[in-house]
Amino acid sequence: FATYKMAVLSSKQVQVRSVASRPAPMVVVPLAAARHVSRSPVPAAAAPAPVSAARVSRGSRRTTVCVAATAAQMFKTTTEGLQVPHGPEAKLVNLMAPPDQHAALVAGCTKRIELSDRNACDVELLCVGAFSPLEGFMEKEEYDSVVANMRMTNGLLFGLPIILDTDSEDVAPGDNVVLSYQGQDLAVMTVTSKWVPNKPLECLKCYGTSSLEHPAVQMVAMERGKYYLGGPIKGLTLPTRVFPCATPAEVRSTLPTNQDVLAFQCRNPIHKAHYELFIRALDAPNVRNGAVCLVHPTCGPTQDDDIPGVVRFRTYEVLKEETANPRLRWAYLPYSMHMAGPREAIQHMIIRKNYGCTHFIIGRDMAGCKSSLSGKDFYGAYDAQELANQHATELNMQTVPSLNIAYTEERGYVTADVAKAENLHVLNLSGTKFRQMLRAGGDIPEWFAFKSVVAVLREQILSESN
After folding, report:
1. Which stretches make up the Sulphate adenylyltransferase catalytic domain (predicted)?
2. Are 436 and 456 in contact (CB under 8 A)?
3. What angle, rounded to 10 degrees, do the helices at 140-149 and 199-207 form?
């Protein structure tokens, strides 16, 4: 099991800077896209709800400033009152071909490529519009631009390149190719670009290092093929998965209109401190009353020592049932983690924007990783927060920094500054100790983990031992 961490925000100044120091988020939408968005930044019905006295009574200057910023914020929205999709046209892409075209599309292909687990995730996210406005894998020029500048050739922000890799010498530009995965034909692709990438440069720019000690560098160097392919795709079907992955359109249909929607990203089972983080985020000073939180875990490939996606999915399902919180929405993302720190934070924000989110909860060392040799972190604790804050306005989003939550004997979960100021007794349980207790069958403290989640994890351990 991956080591359990609580996301930390060590300085109140970070929260002030992330909310109050920037202008209200706006996205410039071309006139051609006016049909897709409302004429005014926020419809009259979407005016921020009054902030409760309880929230104002927190009393700090930071809260006062943030409340003022909340009252002034205006998000660009669709005519339905939801977050606009990413891209100059503010349009959610749908690349799925009509069923009556499938046979002709496959018949027009002369080549076939078997997708890896990671490739299949990218094909699915392209087809359903999670990578909007992309309509296929990036061509070389787009790849080069995103690698070098974190922007597409038209200047649009994009965190990481989206490409298809292969070792095939036969596939060439102009070919129509069937993309298959575990016996399913997922899509057809028209190859318009093929090249041998400069992988060390890609890794250095995207991950901040070209060292094989970084898990994503290992992936690029040792898993990906010799060639990269780019070109448009048309979807045939989505991968058959144990866990259902709602599309952006499906998730949007469950969201309240003219309201803030927070996104919580995770790739591990949710323990009680995590739960406290996103529940308390709903009351953050820059979040309107009545907001909801989309708990949106990634269930695709991650690090080798992470819990398998299918097991993680089961822990989320039992937790959803146990908590039954009407302010939460649950969905699962077939995304392949790169552990790219700051760049991946941007990628996650773009994806969640396409799913309809206006806010992104971002914790300490988000999507970070350690050297496989020295154990040192590849990124600073707040690098991802800084880059996310820097681009939040451009993305028509706001960030909500995670609080430093501690469990105390006297008052249960409180923020670390309260625990220190009141000299409360803080209880700790390390990830290593937690894993040992799970394997040994010891009692897990109820303040640390949900009983339903523990039961799923113990069942997994038992099945592995058998």
Report:
1. 246-459
2. no
3. 40
Q: What is the 3-state secondary structure (H, E, C) of 73-100?
A: CCCCEECCCCECCCCCCCCCCCCECCHH
Q: How far apart are CA 274 and CA 449, in angstroms?
A: 10
Closest C-alpha among 343, 335, 430, 349 to residue 378: 343
The pLDDT, as a whole number, for residue 303 is: 61
- Burial string for 139-151 (b: 16+ CB within 10 Å, else e) reads bbebbbbbbeebe
Predicted pLDDT of residue 367: 83
The answer to whether residues 294 and 329 touch, using CB atoms and an 8 Å cutoff, is yes
Residue 5 CA, distance from chain mean position: 18
The pLDDT of residue 306 is 66
10-27 exposure pattern, b = at least 16 Cβ within 10 A, e = fewer: eeeebbbebbbeeeebeb
pLDDT digits (tens, 9 = 90+) for 90-129: 999 999 999 999 999 999 999 999 999 999 999 999 999 9
pLDDT lower than 50: segments of the chain: 1-72
Compute the C-alpha angle 79/80/81, nearest 5°.
Answer: 90
Three-point CA angle 97, 101, 103, nearest 5°: 120
- How far from the centroid of its chain's Cα atoms is residue 199's Cα? 24
What are 146's two structure tokens?
């995103």
**Class of residue 92 by CB neighbours under 10 A (exposed 0-12, middle 13-18, buried 19+):** buried
How many degrees, rounded to 5, is the angle at CA 65 between CA 56 and CA 266? Answer: 85
Q: What does the mean pLDDT of the chain come to?
A: 84
